[in-house]
């Protein structure tokens, strides 16, 4: 679904091409100027009539004499012609949203911000590819996303990131597969079901802060396309505050995007509470519920893919925890890991299209 080619973007016969725009939407130089020269002044006139727009926004216009049907003008910079990865990421995201609004199936991007904006090609590649993966992973009408680069330097920067195929699963003992081992984990079951390379980086007893401390060696250094972040159970039993968990998760998400990796959030499984509830288990359960509620809200706000490992562990009729899925108060039995594997397989189906 994601392709990298050496091509003149103005010659492509896709549904839409993206113009590297400024917030005023004038089409003077670079990719924008080339689009205007090939497609005609009507493209610029329509764009300007819809502007100015905030930096990071995008608008769609007709494509004039081009083979494409639409031009999406993505404002990666303002009148100062300065940009950064946050602006490029936002411009990419909003270009994709305009594509969805116009039911576009195929779209081509240039390397936004790398001309007069001065952004390094590798930084643009990390921001744009991970942003496109984030968008596609949540479900999309887009069938083909192309990076059209005009030289070998652009190809060398974008190709390695676009061709990433691994998914790293970062977590605690529930990711590791305790007590059975990684070969019985939900990661292994999902990997087999999807036919995708998934790397188990679960560590028994780990917290979200510990996961953040090992994020670089266990995730970034492996250069995956995606990382599934799933933790919180040990934090709850150790009494970590919601604010502490929030900081760790947000830091991991930021580090993922900085390295061109799209993060996904796994909602932690419930605690298996029986008839008698010790005080420490009750407190841990309340904390874990607060973490989970925040994770759902945070993932929704940040448009991150979510793996709901919580709901399938509840009895459909009573809403209570399905104790048969557990080995103890926290760890799934083998049948529980099978349930998690199926959940992950369904949730990651869209991700497979982006590899």
Tell me about the biggest sheet?
6 strands, mixed
Q: Number of DSSP helices?
A: 14
CATH topology group of the largest domain = Rossmann fold
What is the string of helix and strand elements? EEHHEEHEHEHEHHEHHEHHEHEHH
What's the CATH H-level homologous superfamily of the largest domain?
SGNH hydrolase
Gyration radius over CA:
23 Å
Q: What structural category do the secondary elements indicate? A: alpha/beta
What is the spatial order of strands in the main beta sheet? 1-6-5-2-4-3
Number of domains: 2
Can you name the CATH architecture of the largest domain?
3-Layer(aba) Sandwich
Strand share of the residues?
A: 15-25%
How helical, in percent, are the residues? 40-55%
The CATH class of the largest domain: Alpha Beta
Spatial gap, N to C terminus: 8 Å
Number of strands: 11
Low-confidence stretches: none
What does this entry look like structurally?
- The chain has 355 residues and is of the alpha/beta class.
- The protein folds into two domains: 2-162, 3-Layer(aba) Sandwich (Leucine Aminopeptidase, subunit E, domain 1), CATH 3.40.220; 167-352, Rossmann fold (3-Layer(aba) Sandwich).
- The protein has helices at residues 30-39, 41-49, 85-101, 121-137, 152-162, 173-176, 186-194, 208-213, 215-218, 233-238, 242-258, 279-302, 334-347, 349-352; strands at residues 2-6, 16-22, 58-62, 70-77, 106-109, 144-149, 167-171, 198-202, 226-230, 262-267, 306-308.
- The protein has a six-stranded mixed β-sheet, sandwiched between helices. It has a five-stranded parallel β-sheet with strand order 8-7-9-10-11, with helices on both faces.
- Helix 1 (30-39) packs across helix 2 (41-49), helix 4 packs parallel to helix 5 and helix 7 packs across helix 13.
- The mean pLDDT is 94.
